[in-house]
Amino acid sequence: xxxxxxxxxxxxxxxxxxxxxxxxxxxxxxxxxxxxxxxxxxxxxxxxxxxxxxxxxxxxxxxxxxxxxxxxxxxxxxxxxxxxxxxxxxxxxxxxxxxxxxxxxxxxxxxxxxxxxxxxxxxxxxxxxxxxxxxxxxxxxxxxxxxxxxxxxxxxxxxxxxxxxxxxxxxxxxxxxxxxxxxxxxxxxxxxxxxxxxxxxxxxxxxxxxxxxxxxxxxxxxxxxxxxxxxxxxxxxxxxxxxxxxxxxxxxxxxxxxxxxxxxxxxxxxxxxxxxxxxxxxxxxxxxxxxxxxxxxxxxxxxxxxxxxxxxxxxxxxxxxxxxxxxxxxxxxxxxxxxxxx
Length: 342
Description:
This protein is an alpha/beta fold and 342 residues long. Helices cover 39% and strands 15% of the residues. The protein has helices spanning 25-34, 47-62, 81-94, 101-107, 123-129, 155-167, 185-190, 194-197, 206-215, 242-252, 271-276, 311-341, and strands at 20-23, 39-44, 75-78, 109-113, 145-149, 172-176, 200-203, 218-223, 236-238, 257-262, 279-282. Helix 1 runs parallel beside helix 2, helix 6 runs parallel beside helix 12 (311-341) and helix 10 runs parallel beside helix 12. The model is unreliable at 1-16 (pLDDT under 50).
């Protein structure tokens, strides 16, 4: 007796297989390029998108990469709009509240894949991120910049942190195990695929991770909107003062890297995290004398209704300042090494 034919609309793997579905052109293409997930198949209802993905897969298949067990091989299927909608509906039912079917349908492409491996951060990872001891820093080198996320629960802010971290050259993003948004399909989509490309780790304990980094020569900054400098032992500096603080610490001992800790949207950093920071960084608000609204008929309420930036926006500003400061610091270290050898 012949087995019944498989319906053409059943395009996804059996539910018993651990799977994840990414959506959005950028997220799908970045996942294919990174190859950090198990890649099963691509489904789209657009022939143009299907051709573009096939071209990328063909290009990736020719690329040779150290450590790859096999070349990239993935089926790219162009389905009817009805079949695509049925697949999207199946994903929406099995993945709870992480996303919604309308957003996926509008993306016109999904990638069936395995979960993203996110290992726990360990001392070995600190070593792998550092400049090798037998290599002297050069102007082409970059001191590691890590972003620690503790308590950010909004996927929009988490996605923004990943996107800004990738843009400003961060080495990795570390996510706290508790009360912190993880790398979900929504985060991958909203980050335009940055969460697929940038290495991510879990932190079992944020304070312990900070201590590990400090023992390895890192300077750990905490982001804060408004903390009195008299309340904590760590100095409170604005973004333009970061470079001065790094130069001062580098004069005491060579700085191996910098870490920035981002706290929750509502309460900011926890007290235990604040006390472990080497410095607290704030983004200064425009002064009332330079606010153009003060020269119009509009009257600004008192106190100011916007007392801080959201976590994603603040991270972007701080990462820009930190990366600029790190580049200057690395240049100083190169000159110091050249002078001592001469």
